Amino acid sequence: MSPTGHDHGSHDHAGDGKKWSQDVTEHSDAMDLEEHLFESADPHRIALSLKHSAEQSHRRKSEPYQSAMSMLNFYINRAGDNLPARRKKVLEDAKDELRKVFGRDD
After folding, report:
1. Is the model more confident about 20 or about 97?
2. CA-closest candidate to residue 67, choices 14, 29, 97, 17
3. pLDDT at 15 over 70
4. Cβ–Cβ under 8 Å, residues 25 and 33
5. Is the pTM of this model over 0.85?
6. Where are the domains of the chain?
7. Residue-wise pLDDT tens digits, 22-48
8. Helix, strand or coil for residue 99?
9. Is the C or the N end of the chain the one with fewer CB within 10 Å?
10. How far apart are CA 17 and CA 1, in angstroms?
11. Closest CA to 25 of 14, 35, 17, 10
């Protein structure tokens, strides 16, 4: 326990068994995400939903494209080796779709 009262060694959020990264994905302060969004098998749908969430958010700190791409990358990176190859392919394809729906080539 730190002097501020926070247990920095714990990965559970509020004792409910969730990891902090799961809580961030489900309850982002920057964007309101569609429930179970990252479980979709449709990369285009994921991209459109992230775009919509980012554009509607008034709490994000960066441009909508950057916020949407950051949330997608965050989810992929936090899942790490636990992400099955098929899911990872869908999410990686969603990055390309996100670039398309935002009209970006980077």
Report:
1. 97
2. 29
3. no
4. yes
5. no
6. 20-101
7. 555 455 555 678 888 999 999 999 999
8. helix
9. C
10. 18
11. 35
